[in-house]
Each structure stands twice: as C-alpha cells, then as structure tokens.
Amino acid sequence: MRIVEMTGEHVPQIAGLEQLCFSDPWSERSIASELDNDLALWLVALEGQTAVGYVGSQTVLGETDMMNLAVHPDFRRKGIAASLVRELVQRLKDRGSRCLTLEVRASNQPAQALYTSLGFAQVGRRPNYYQHPKEDGLILRKEWEL
Q1: How far apart are alpha carbons 143 and 146 in whole angstroms?
Q2: CA atoms 67, 73, 74, 79: torsion sign
Q3: What is the mean pLDDT of residues 39-47?
Q4: Which residues are catalytically annotated?
Q5: Domain count, the chain
Q6: Are 55 and 82 in contact, with CB atoms under 8 Å apart?
Q7: Which CATH number fits the domain that encloses residue 135?
Q8: pLDDT digit string (tens) for 73-104?
Q9: Which of 47, 70, 78, 93 is buried most deeply by CB count within 10 Å?
C-alpha cells in the first residue's frame, strides 16, 4: 500500500467509497472541488491503482479539520486508517498546522478507539450533528508542537 495526494483520477473511486461507507456521502462533484481548494489536503491509500481508503482535510490559520476518513470494508482492520491519519498529521506539520480536529459518531466505538490510540482527546460534543441517523458527534482533537 502507498499513500499519495488525491488527484482527479482518484475522485470517482473516492466517491464510490463515500457511497459505500457513509449515510450522507459527498458527491463526486464536491470531492473534485477539493482539488481546487487551497485549504484542502486529501490523501489516498492505494493498492496498485485501486483506492482502498482516503482522508480529507481543510486547514485555516494553522488549524485543520478532518473532513472524512474511510476505508473500504474489505480492507479494514489492516492499519490503513491509522496510516492515513499518521501521514496526514506529518504532512500537516510540514505545512505549519498545529492541530487536527474531527467529529465522530458517539456510537462509533471502533473509530473512537483508533483516534484515542493516535493521541486524540475529546474536547466537546455536537448534539444531533449527524442526521441519518440522528446522532451526536464527539469532537476530538490532537495538538502538536512545530
């Protein structure tokens, strides 16, 4: 597996992963628009030419929000998500970001365990953040020194 920055050729596969993994998926057009967004950094985990996972982020004034993280169900529990987050953090540090914040479903224990193992801590809660199904989002954050 290798991790690369998203290009236009990855967009259709990422859109497919969005459909597969999320109840409110981003459209292919929305994902493609991130290619022209100077605030965005999206990374893709590739097996050969196949996108098996990705992470998207946006940085404003040295603070980064993780937009989405997904791994194809057939490739889960192989360390791909952790590798994507670690690589994202390293590249964000190189770009001068000081922290990474994300929301995760309150019921998503596996994702919470992953983020905790990577040094994230809960800093808040957004009531009814998720709509399908309606559920609170936990706000997690990881900070670092530059």
Answers
A1: 10
A2: positive
A3: 98
A4: 103, 115
A5: 1
A6: no
A7: 3.40.630.30
A8: 999 999 999 999 999 999 999 999 999 999 99
A9: 70
